[in-house]
Amino acid sequence: MSSLSTKQIHDISGRSEAVAEYFIQGAIILKKIMLTGEIGVGKTTLLNRLLNLIHYNKKIYGYRTEKDTVGDKHYDIGKVYIYPATGKKIKSQANCVADLTGSKQFTAHTEIFETTGVQLLSNIPKGSIVVMDEIGFLESKAPKFSAKIKEIINNDYIVFGVIKPNNTPLLDYIRNNPNIDLFTITPANRDIIFEKIKSLIIKKNY
């Protein structure tokens, strides 16, 4: 196993049996990985590659957000949805967090973060994998959802997330949190970053 600093690896002494089970199985180290970078550099693709490394039958919790647009997917007309990290993509008004109205204009529905979003981050067993893809600037206007995100990153969970390269109270809190290993992704470094993160999270058995 590669040498990790005290900051990088958490002592599991006295922690829950669920957390200890992950270590006993030799699956992954209790890490909180956040990816950031500009639009289109492959953050979610890299996150999915990391999740594919983990071969066991435990449920993955958390959420994903997705733009469903007409025309240019970054700036045109459409909606942004939030749904469970695994399983069926649910696209309805009940889980629409924003209506995109063109030319970078949008109408936010932060109340969906406070209901559906909070539900997706609630009642998660300690030691579980939690996906948060992605955390952007709207979430800072949803205090209950923001509190859930902070709860996850400050407790015994294995976290894989994506954050926008914006400055908001929540995003700055995540960047500056000592529990977080933050990686900035570019097209040139994403394969290198993948191998680096892999060496951090996979517990090698010899």
Characteristic terms for this protein:
single chain, 206 residues, alpha/beta, Rossmann fold, 8-stranded mixed sheet, 8 strands, 25% strand, globular, disordered N terminus
Give structural notes:
- The protein has 206 residues and is of the alpha/beta class.
- The chain has a single domain, classed as P-loop containing nucleotide triphosphate hydrolases (Rossmann fold), CATH 3.40.50.
- The protein has helices spanning 17-24, 43-52, 110-120, 143-153, 169-176, 190-201, and strands at 32-36, 60-70, 77-84, 96-102, 105-108, 129-135, 158-163, 181-184.
- Helix 2 (43-52) packs parallel to helix 6 and helix 3 runs parallel beside helix 4 (143-153).
- The longest helix is centred in the last third of the chain and has 12 residues, at 190-201.
- The termini are close together.
What's the mean pLDDT score? 83
Globular, elongated, flat, extended or rod-shaped: what is the shape? globular
Low-pLDDT sequence parts: 1-26
**N/C terminus separation:** 8 Å
| Shape-level CATH architecture | 3-Layer(aba) Sandwich
SSE string, helix = H, strand = E?
A: HEHEEEEHEHEHEH
Give the full name of the CATH homologous superfamily: P-loop containing nucleotide triphosphate hydrolases
Radius of gyration: 17 Å
Q: Strand-residue fraction?
A: 25-35%
* Spatial order of strands in the largest sheet: 5-4-3-2-6-7-1-8
Number of domains: 1
Secondary structure class reads alpha/beta
* DSSP helical segment count: 6
- Counting copies of identical and different chains, the oligomeric state is single chain
Class, according to the CATH hierarchy? Alpha Beta
How would a textbook summarize the main sheet? 8 strands, mixed
Helix content: 25-40%
Say what the CATH topology is: Rossmann fold
Strand tally is 8
